[in-house]
Fold this protein.
Amino acid sequence: MASKPVVLITGASEGVGRATASFLAERGFIVFGTSRNPSAVQALPGVDFVELDVRSQASVSRCIDTVLGRAGHVSALVANAGIQLHGSVEETSIEEAWSLFDTNFFGSARVIRELLPHMRERGSGRIIAISSTSGFCPQPFFAYYSASKHALEGLAESLRYEVMPFGIDVTILELGGFKTQILGSNEEFAAQKIGAYAPWRDRAQDLSHTYVTLQGADPIVVAEQVHRILTGKARGARHRAGRDVSFAFMAKRLLPSWWLERGRNKAHGIKNK
């Protein structure tokens, strides 16, 4: 039976998940990272990679059984696995939207539900749901991605109250722009292209890539915030990582909606007809 804290991080093969796994392992945590193909993942000292496809309940069950078999318990879950989807609502098929939700929302829900009985019986546990600026401040042409993060935040906040009596803490961690593979191997595009949307859709995609590749912060910032949450140095239901997401949060909270809309429209070249 492991005596050190055991952390399971979904989507740990690259980006934020990988940086967090490495950071926690260096600080004495027993870390399990997940990947759909762990044999192809570059090894990380102190991190045990296990196979997981969050879209499959059978895969989720096998993963949790494997981790419990090796470590004896799970102290914390970092629900990080996610993908990005570009396209207007009209261009995006329901099947494409469903695939996105199956990873970003239902994928996290499957892992959380599988771990809850174990944490409840132990009388302790931490769950960190990784969200983003889009979770509270949607952007045009990322509607379904924003919706998936809205849904995840709603689930996590409701869950927080439900499991408090069992010593389980649930936290939402909203991320700004970080240099990760969310715009790369985890980036998808709506298959149908409607020419009428092209000028603004393409502009939104360009802004997104600039935001991440040129202005994105080091994922270590996220790892540090996760560590603060896991060690009890950051308490409460919601936290943020990145200066840009903190700015967006304050702007959303303090500024009138028409002002925010004007700024977003200007950035994307959108005008009322």
